[in-house]
Amino acid sequence: MQALNSAGGRRDGTPTLTQNGKPLFGAFFGQSSFAQHVLTSSSNVVVVDDDVADLATAAPLGCGFQTGAGAVLNVLAPGTDSSLVIFGAGAVGLAAIMAARACGVRTVVAIDPVESRRQQAIKLGATVALQPGTAAVGAIREITDGGTSHALDTTGIPAVIAEALTALDSCGTLVVVGLGKTMAEINITDLMLNGKTLRGCTEGDGVPQNFIPTLFDAHAEGRFPMEQLVTKYSFHAINDAVADMRAGKTIKPVLVWEEKN
């Protein structure tokens, strides 16, 4: 599992790359995101239609976009009369907002500290966008008439996860897709007495060969405008891409190489 999916190894445990006789690891979950070529198994390949001209814009479907959209469509599955609060309006969170809008969720609340991302959340379909903090839970309860029926945490921050659980209505569900550096303490009494559900989700719990084409179809119909989240950078500007992402200026940076004649 680890060798094939995290370290870029082969089934027999040998590395795919070496330097001076020593193995090189770190293939970014087998995607080799910073390379022009990649060795991969057929199970990692998703066939797309010939009319998909801009593969650079579609690149984030392999991870962030399908994670956010899948968490909503495949796991939470909110109805039109539901409410959904999304903690973190980065690529994953905004993809979740687009998915929520596409399936007609009545109330969608976005939580993010960056103003430009809150504005983008509203543009993509959020009902309201709030700053994080202690006041956010009270605002969520007021907006959703007592508590949200569904919530999604994309941050992995223990304090945020605790707030998300507190913001849930009775029998509400929180899905977490972010990995944090520290352990989160969970109020089991709150979960038990109020019938709340906390569950994890990996890559949107979707089968990529089936789910990614579904997102392509939604994009073609204008229901999943993923191009609004992507900013392309020349590979030589990789440091600028990282800096802009950390500053919140860019939602999903994608590196492209200039074609040689």
What can you tell me about this protein's structure?
The chain has two domains: 1-45, no CATH class; 63-205, 3-Layer(aba) Sandwich (Rossmann fold). 36% of the residues lie in helices and 18% in strands. The protein is built from ten helices and ten strands. It has helices spanning 2-5, 55-58, 64-76, 91-102, 115-124, 134-143, 158-167, 188-194, 208-220, 238-247; strands spanning 17-19, 22-24, 83-87, 107-111, 128-130, 148-153, 168-176, 197-200, 230-234, 252-256. The strands form three sheets. It has a six-stranded parallel sheet with strand order 5-4-3-6-7-8, with helices on both faces. Strands 1-2 form a two-stranded antiparallel sheet. Helix 6 runs parallel beside helix 7. The radius of gyration is 19 Å and the shape is globular.
Quick overview:
The chain is of the alpha/beta class and 261 residues long. 36% of the residues lie in helices and 18% in strands.
CATH superfamily of the largest domain: NAD(P)-binding Rossmann-like Domain
Q: Write down how many β-strands occur, each being a DSSP E stretch of 2 or more residues.
A: 10
Q: Which stretches of 5+ consecutive residues score pLDDT under 50?
A: none
User: Per CATH, which architecture of the largest domain?
Assistant: 3-Layer(aba) Sandwich
Q: What's the arrangement of strands in the largest beta sheet?
A: 5-4-3-6-7-8
Q: Using only CA atoms, what is the Rg? A: 19 Å
Assigned CATH class of the largest domain: Alpha Beta
In N-to-C order, the SSE pattern is HEEHHEHEHEHEHEHEHEHE
Q: What structural category do the secondary elements indicate?
A: alpha/beta
* Domain unit count: 2
Span of the ends, CA to CA: 40 Å
Domain Alcohol dehydrogenase-like C-terminal: 91-211
Organism: Hoyosella subflava (strain DSM 45089 / JCM 17490 / NBRC 109087 / DQS3-9A1) (Amycolicicoccus subflavus)
Protein name: Aryl-alcohol dehydrogenase AdhB
Keywords: Metal-binding, NAD, Zinc
